[in-house]
Amino acid sequence: MLAVHLVSFFFSKLQEDPTKKVDRFLYAMRLNDDQLRDISARFQAEMKKGLSSESNAAAAVKMLPTHVRSTPDGSEKGQFLALDLGGSRFKVLQVKVREGVGIKKGEVKMEEKTYSIPKELLSGRATKLFDHVSESLKDFIQEKNISLQEKHPLAFTFSFPCEQSCLDQGLLLSWTKKFEVRGLQGKDVVQTLRDAIDRTGDMDVEVLAMVNDTVATMMTCGFDDKYCDVGLIIGTGTNACYMEAMRNVDLVQGDEGRMCVNTEWGAFGDDGALDDFITEFDRNVDAASRNPGKQIFEKMVSGLYLGEIVRLVVLKMAKLGLLFDGHVSDALRTKGKITTADVAAMEEYKNGLKNTKNLLMHLDLNPSQDDCIAVQHASTIVSFRSSNLVAAGLAAILTRIRHNRNLKTLRITVGVDGTLYKTHPQYPKRLHKVVRRLLPDCHVRFVLSDSGSSKGAALVSAVAQRLASRKKQVDEKLCPFRLSQEQLQLVKARMRAGLEAGLKTRGPSAIKMLPSYVYHTPDGTEHGKYLALDLGGTNFRAMLVRFKKGLQQNARLYHKIYTIPLEIMQGTGEELFDHLAQCVSDFLDYMGMKKAHLPAGFTFSFPCEQTAIDTGTLVSWTKGFKATDCEGHDVVEMLRDAIKRRNEFDLDIVALVNDTVGTMMSCAYEDPQSEIALIAGTGSNVCYMEELKNIKKIEQKTDKEKEEETPEGEEHKQGDGSEGEKEDDTAVQKMCINTEWGGLGDDGSLDDIITPYDKEVNQNSVNPGKQRFEKLTSGMYLGEIVRQVLLDLTRKGLLFRGHVTEALKTPGIFETKYLSQIESDRLALLQVRRILQRLGLDCNCDDSIIVKEVCGAVSRRAAQLCGAGMAAVVDKMRENRGLDHLSITVGVDGALYKLHPHFSQILKDTTRALAPQCDVTFLPSEEGSGKGAALIAAVARRRHEK
């Protein structure tokens, strides 16, 4: 009864506008923007599911990694053979990329021949199919007179779903497009082709890459448009690929750069994700297909099925009496009688209705004008739904790319191929319009592939060759930075020899081994107020430190930082120390302590020859300082003189302290085992507690000199050998030595590991030939080493497309802080690009990977060298003490150690590997050398009070 009423209702509407009745009949196919956004969101969720290693197995959309890591940059070149297998016919090609006479820059020249595949091979054994392909390849080579004496790289376009573990390997997941070849599913397609080539014989062919036709389309368009990061096929089948950030591709190891992902989006909906959008016509098409329940999205949008959907719609409307007065012909009942080419013809702008009438008459129907209008409109709705669904999927991909890049707007190009897109008169415009409506903030350009997937496959191989060649050249440039264990052992041995040599004589030595006259580390009884002054770089810090008696690890600090202008750093010594005195005056005003007569420790982070704890003759400036009339003078006296000239306050400077020594004292306040300190920052240095008996330069002094230098309260008593006397005697058996290890190599001992880039940095420094080890390991120089490497790579055409900018030629522009930022594991390559772009370096993703690799090589070497040096120090201390095993703590300060993401771990690993008998703990200093200077002053005051 209900059916009768429905038929009566439909008959009553026969006289209305024929398009309106079709609209009502196909209401479920007319998707609005909200529905399309919903579908797009569902597809985004499917993409995420497919990319995850945890959910990929259950994902309908497989998101297959292709191992294509870069799009063309226009510099590719070479000659390639290409095979394109994706249908009942296949092509063999010779592709010349910027090779040969008459080929302009950027051009690709192709010669091709098409071969048919006998029908019996489409359902036969895989070996038979690939033997036919291989024999056809040999036929092409002979026909084109291609030399059989040379090895020919071959690119293979294989337009079926494959799981790839590398560029030249792929396991077939399933056949599509009427292929039912036996014995290949789950096996390596490339190896099958190689085996067939071997069986054919007389060909020297190397299969470099296997790519999907969608990927090849992206690469083809990417050769002419650097913004092309998406490939789209809308033809007999449909698919999309795009360049995904490697950090999101769980199925492939590594997180650097990008990789093209073949979405295989035709399977979208196989898990029910589109059930509420699937119509009865889609279900009928699916049920009658070779693979029911599979490739649901493809069956809704691709050229293989659109004509059949239209036929089913027209058939149903005719049966309901909505068309042809209810007449249904046998032809209309026959599957495949309406093709996608017919759909395109019906929607032609001028001849559409005429073509529709001719088609219907060919189907043995007698259509009225309204029938023709209605069928044409039904065809339009079906094809429009197809373009809408494709637009929704594409919008999901573009949204993901925009989010990956953290952009508000996205400029991108989509490379497109496929007969539906190429031959349907309205399809491209509809697709473009809907995509731009769904993504108003994206500037999307669509480029039609002009040479199909064969050119793209060759370009994949060309890009792979370019990347491999570039990687080899970059590796050769970076090889000298990659130190072997044998080289590190040699550095350790040379450091040890340098330490020993510096201890033995007052004469010149590469490693100065300067006595600090600090004999004791803190014991927790320090108390009172102390002023600490710290000059170690472009800043000067004044600190007031208060220690509470009996409360170890309880100190209060107040400080203020002052800038040292460049003209002061490189002016006269008197101007420099007058500036320091002015800063101290300001700080005492700030603290309201101008009239207090405070004991002070002066941290002075430059090499000084000390004869007592409160004197120090500057040996040489480092870190960019060049103030005149300072070297060879007592810096404590120079500061005292500057204070006297101000005549505003008085200080009792009781200790001159190197920043490294101050760091050791600061950490020893927290951990009594801290008897070594390392500075890994703007400069590089180490100090440690050495046995007095080994410090020959002190023993060589006269008795009178030694008597004057013995700290008060530490005289060797002529008593009765009481326990107290023995304790005092023991207490002066060690002294902290400021190694000034940055000088290692000044005598040429590191020449075998010094690179041309190091030589350039050294030559352009303020102290050529000096501090060679420091110039390999400290923050002041690492950025400049990186800049020199980048400059060389760019001049060689391996970076930034060979464009040497003024910024890249500017010394000092690449600060060491950029190494820490660029090497951060949490930093995406897009952010690396932004850092480089702020420096005026316009780079792509591949450039960013190389820059990150350069930074890593330079910083890793620095950390390893520091580790080798540290191993020499701790092993020496272990042997000094006659121990089989040494447990010791190293106090550490410096931005390189604290801020660089990998420096500290590499340092620790290297130290452990080179000094296996030492258990070394690294303790970062919280307050640095300033607190240490106050502690040294407090220790000196404590000993004086005893």
Task: Summarize this structure as a short list of keywords or feature phrases.
six-stranded mixed sheet; 946 residues; 44% helix; disordered N terminus; 34 helices; alpha/beta
Describe the structure.
A hairpin with a 7-residue loop joins strand 19 (608-609) and strand 20 (617-618). The termini are far apart. The model is unreliable at 1-14, 101-105 and 700-731 (pLDDT under 50). The protein contains 34 helices and 26 strands. Helices cover 44% and strands 18% of the residues. The chain is α/β, with parallel strands linked by helices and 946 residues long.
Provide the spatial order of strands within the biggest beta sheet. 1-11-10-9-12-13
Rg (CA only): 39 Å
- Overall mean pLDDT stands at 87
Shape: elongated
Please outline what is shown here:
This protein is α/β, with parallel strands linked by helices and 946 residues long. It has 34 helices and 26 strands.
